[in-house]
Structures are given as structure tokens and as C-alpha cells.
């Protein structure tokens, strides 16, 4: 009720002219924003979620950056507004946007590399690999030039990563401006439904991102979400043509130059399940977090928690965690990948199937009967209990 005539009467009282545009039918965030963008008369489009509160002086720092360079896309720091009390909590200026293997947006700590690029000055703009997507400003002509939003996407989800990859790969920059703050009401779950279900909608949108922008690394998304292979994500030929016409760079370039901290390895030998030859069970994270034990379970073939990458750096990774053994006798744990070798280096022998922990010289073995979910490290003996199968070409990329 409040979004009808009452809203239209309220905006008439505001000190600046405000127009209320309506789609006529529920269209979702992406198409609603495209409708609004077509009506913009100014040089800069600023997109904001409905559930935000802007602080004093939030807009000027964003516009100043765009005025200096029209290919900059800029975001404020997103402060937290409680969905229960409306308490306003200032967010950290030491996080930037990333993503995981499932193509979920995530906040991560700003790396030392970016701090050094800014000369240690935390008031300077922060170059972020991805944006949350709800709040940003962009030059109107540049928005049109780089392809607006992907109109093949539905409702909401994945559009922020698609635009982030496109901005960087096609010659722009994406920044968080520390001097701009906007509060955002964060909720535990979406208050509205998705036609077709939220999982299917987001999976479709993410599949379009993977197919158009991620090159070979799309396999990470599809291995983690095998169901996405059967999702009808529509025709992406026009988006691929856009990428070609704009002469956009590769996803490898993005990982090497913009997001070398990404948990997607640049070079790897294998991606898939790791199966014990005797028990026919698979290594499994069991949904556990960093610092918790690696597990095994029945091989279900559904990807997800049973997908691991064996990298050229001799890591065995699951998303941003690596297999790690600080104690020669185990247990093997899931620990945030640090890229420095040590306890996270493993040697897989594709002749005898052994997975040897480099530091200890011991081999990964099926679980003891005392805990059938916990693989162990034992002296290497060549037994079938220490044989692990990585199906596939194995030398796919890291030759």
C-alpha cells in the first residue's frame, strides 16, 4: 500500500525533483534498473537498493572520481543497518569484494599488495575485484558502451559479478571510495519469492556469467553446481559478441592482474572428486569451515563439497581452503590457502595413486575404523588403502 499513491505524494515533498517509474508488472532488479537507466537525463547513473540510508556527503566523492575518468565505476563503503533495530554500524574500510567457486560474492580482507599500491593511505580509492552490486555510480555513456546489464538474466543474482568482470576485462576500473558511506539493511534471507525458485534463478544467471566471461575457469562453477549444466541459461551469443567487439581481456588476465589472491588457481592439473580405491568413498569437506577436519563420505557425484583442485603449486584445494597437515600423524585439516607451500604441499603420483604430504613424507590413507569419516596420514606402503583416483585427463592445464 505504501508503494502506491502514498509514495507518489511523499516524493512531491522532497527538495529535489523525483520521478517514480513503474514497470507495470514484477520484473526484478535487473530489468527495473534498465528501465530507470533509460530515463536518466544526467551524465552519471547512481544505482541504490531501496533499503539504504545515505550519509551526509556520500555522493560528492563518487562523482569526483568519475569526473576524473569516465571509465571508473565507483562504490561507497556499505555500512550495516540492523534489520531488527535499525541500528547503524560503520563497516570496515579494510575489506574488498571477491567470490568463491560457486560464484557467490564474498567480502575478504584487503591484501597488503593493495595497501602498498595506495601508499598506506586508507582514504585513497580501493581497487576491488568485484562489487556487491546494490550501490554504485557509473557514467551513463560508459554504462551504455560496455553493455548495460545482461538482459538475459532474471530477477536478481550474479549481475554484480558479471558487471565486475566486464568492467575490468574491458578496460575500466572498479573502486570502493572510503570517503563515501551508505547504510544498507542486511537481512538473513530474502523477504520475497523468486519465480521458479531462488536457486534456479541465481544458477541460471551465474551460468551466463561463467559461459561468457570466465573462459576455462567456468568449470569451477559447473563442477560445484552440476545441476547448472542442465539449466536453460538462454542465448549468450550477443554477450559473447559484446565481449569480442569491446576487445576484452581474458579471465586469466583478470586473475593474474586484478585478483591474484583469488582461490581459483591459475594453473592446475585436476578438478573433480578424489576417490579412495579401496572404500570407493570420496574426500569431502562435509561443509566444514577453515580449521576443521577433512572428511570422507559416499561418492555422490553431485560436485559441491566433494570437488577438489590439484594445483601446479601442489595444493589440494576446495574453494578457499587447502588440505593442511601440521602434525605428521594428522589429522588433515581444511585451512585457508596461504600459497606458501609448507604443510599445504602434496604430491599426487598418477601411476600408483598415492597422495604424499611433502613435509612429513607420509601418505594419505583411508579412515581408521575408529572414525570412518576421517582420512589419516600413515607411512607410505603402496597399499590399496593409500590409492586415490583422480578421474579425468589430469594434465588439463598445468603442462
From TrEMBL:
Molecular-function annotations in GO: carbohydrate binding; metal ion binding; polypeptide N-acetylgalactosaminyltransferase activity
Q: Where is the Ricin B lectin domain?
A: 268-391
Metabolic or biological pathway, per its Swiss-Prot or TrEMBL entry: Protein modification; protein glycosylation
Q: Tell me which domain of life the UniProt entry assigns to the organism this sequence originates from.
A: Eukaryota
List the SUPFAM superfamilies hit by this protein, alphabetically.
Nucleotide-diphospho-sugar transferases, Ricin B-like lectins
- Gene Ontology biological process terms, A to Z: protein O-linked glycosylation
Q: Isomerase: is it a keyword of this entry?
A: no
Q: What is its main location?
A: Golgi
Q: Which GO terms describe its cellular component?
A: Golgi membrane
Q: How does it sit in the membrane?
A: Single-pass type II membrane protein
* Cofactor requirements of the protein: Mn(2+)
**What Enzyme Commission number(s) apply to this enzyme?**
2.4.1.-
Catalysed reaction, written as an equation: L-seryl-[protein] + UDP-N-acetyl-alpha-D-galactosamine = a 3-O-[N-acetyl-alpha-D-galactosaminyl]-L-seryl-[protein] + UDP + H(+); L-threonyl-[protein] + UDP-N-acetyl-alpha-D-galactosamine = a 3-O-[N-acetyl-alpha-D-galactosaminyl]-L-threonyl-[protein] + UDP + H(+)
What are the alphabetically sorted keywords of the record?
Disulfide bond, Glycoprotein, Glycosyltransferase, Golgi apparatus, Lectin, Manganese, Membrane, Metal-binding, Signal-anchor, Transferase, Transmembrane, Transmembrane helix
User: Where does the UniProt annotation locate this protein?
Assistant: Golgi apparatus membrane
Q: Which PANTHER family match?
A: N-ACETYLGALACTOSAMINYLTRANSFERASE (PTHR11675), POLYPEPTIDE N-ACETYLGALACTOSAMINYLTRANSFERASE 5 (PTHR11675:SF101)
Give the family this protein belongs to, as stated in its UniProt record.
Answer: Belongs to the glycosyltransferase 2 family. GalNAc-T subfamily.
Q: What is this protein called?
A: Polypeptide N-acetylgalactosaminyltransferase
Question: What's the source species for this entry?
Answer: Cherax quadricarinatus (Australian red claw crayfish)
